[in-house]
Write a structure and sequence with these properties.
single chain; alpha/beta; Rossmann fold; two-stranded antiparallel ribbon; 7 helices
Length: 290
């Protein structure tokens, strides 16, 4: 088995991975990702016990128990680039022997669940409601750096999406499906739809301040997209990267989002913190039983 060199996988002085500063025994097989570092403690306050607390830069991690369920919640920060760091390192903790720097012969499959915020792209999905993303469409470029095979359905969806939005040339979208094994648990109280991941908050999500947009009709095209019974429910900045990397690495992944803005009705939640708290409490009850 080929050894992974020191420059490729950085291990710090306490035997933890460089960015997330966790050792293998400090991470559970069920991972909750949140964008905001401050949201880690908002999740872990619901744990019965917390056994690990680590922080390095924007990467905050707490590991503990709800009942008999061991869970790690880790912040990614905002955007696909940070997801690339966190997903690679949590997979390495599970599936690379840090002593020999070789891939383990028997791989561990993780459950990775995002608890985040996003904007609705459908009038009937109001602020303060929840969305479970059935698919992730990436408008970022992260997964173009990895080898990923798409199913026929993913290829058809992506092709139709590109034709509908006329996104060609400078943007090459990619499509990834959520874990069906996780998605089936999040039905009652969750809207289901396609989540679009953007590489920024302003122009990439159609916001205009002082810079004009290269594609000013993008939001309208996202809202009007249909492929059979599939439609785009929301957009944010992490889901497609989580889905794509989890697929390549062989993990189950699902993105759950509280809607804090409705871009069709132009509404913003009056208490986004409460919406996130409600998403956390409802989702943790389900996660405990998975």
């Amino acid at each position: 088995m080929q050894r992974i060199e020191e420059s490729e996988l950085i291990i710090n002085s306490r035997g933890a991975l460089y960015h997330i500063d966790l050792r293998p025994e400090e991470m559970a097989d069920t991972i909750i990702t949140v964008g905001d570092p401050d949201r880690v403690k908002v999740v872990s306050k619901h744990f019965d016990t917390v056994e690990v607390r680590q922080q390095h830069r924007e990467f905050v991690s707490h590991t503990g128990f709800i009942g008999k369920k061991r869970i790690t919640v880790v912040s990614t920060g905002i955007g696909p680039d940070n997801v690339d760091i966190v997903l690679n390192e949590i997979d390495a903790l599970a599936n690379i022997d840090l002593e020999t720097r070789t891939i383990k012969p028997v791989l561990t499959q993780l459950n990775i669940i995002r608890l985040g915020t996003s904007g609705s792209l459908q009038a009937e999905i109001p602020v303060d409601s929840f969305v479970a993303g059935t698919h992730g469409i990436g408008l970022d470029n992260l997964m173009h750096f990895y080898r990923m095979e798409n199913t026929d359905e993913e290829q058809q969806l992506c092709h139709h999406f590109i034709n509908h939005t006329q996104l060609t040339g400078t943007i090459t979208p990619y499509m990834v499906t959520a874990s069906a094994a996780l998605l089936k648990n999040f039905v009652d109280g969750y809207n289901h739809g396609i989540t679009v991941t953007c590489p920024g908050f302003y122009g990439p999500q159609g916001r205009v301040l002082r810079m004009g947009l290269a594609n000013p009709t993008l939001i309208d095209h996202l809202t009007s997209f249909r492929f059979g019974n599939k439609f785009i429910s929301n957009f944010e900045m992490e889901t497609s990267a989580l889905y794509g990397m989890s697929k390549v690495l062989g993990h189950h992944c699902l993105s759950l989002n509280a809607i804090v803005a409705n871009r069709v009705s132009k509404q913003f939640s009056k208490d986004g913190g409460l919406a996130v708290e409600n998403l956390i409490k409802k989702s943790l009850e389900i996660i405990e039983g998975i």
